[in-house]
Amino acid sequence: MRRIPPTPAFAFLACPDPPASATIVSAERDYPMAILSFSLTSKKFLEGKKTVTRRDWSEKHYKMWVGLWEKDKLVHDAWDNIPIAGGKRIGRFRLTSRPYKEQLKDMPPQDLEAEGGMCSTLEDFYELIGKSPEEFVTVVRFEKLQL
């Protein structure tokens, strides 16, 4: 299985009913629109089948996304790769719940398909993103918008 190299641009999205291990913070700053890149799952995003992403973000980046949610800035751009690597905008999405942190071990198995269907087991997903089940990631849930 191909492991995804850690990069600041590789990230993931949130759950309506966060598990007990979820951590939600408040942000007071005002933020502009943000982007998510879907380099491995662009096709699933365009089909509307990718509706959640888990990302290994810094606390600052996590708080920025929480701030966007709190300011009701829910619509953002989807890219096929990060802009610095020549990525192009492929669509827009709307956050459907507030981003939060969860331990990977609390990831519901049904999210494997919503993550793009790249893995059939949680263990394969942990390996793909290079994280242990004990580690925390940011979870972001969204819906693709029709342009």
Verbal overview:
The protein is of the alpha+beta class and 147 residues long. The chain has a single domain, classed as Sulfate adenylyltransferase (Roll), CATH 3.10.400. 20% of the residues lie in helices and 22% in strands. The protein contains 4 helices and 6 strands; from the N terminus they run E-H-E-H-E-E-E-H-H-E. Strands 1, 2, 3, 4, 5 and 6 form a 6-stranded mixed β-sheet that branches. It is globular and about 35 Å long.
Summarize this, please?
By secondary structure, the chain is an alpha+beta fold. The chain is 20% helix and 22% strand. Residues 5-29 have low confidence and may be disordered.
Question: What is the element layout, followed by pairings?
Answer:
Layout: E1 35-37, H1 42-46, E2 52-55, H2 59-70, E3 75-79, E4 89-95, E5 100-103, H3 111-114, H4 122-129, E6 136-145
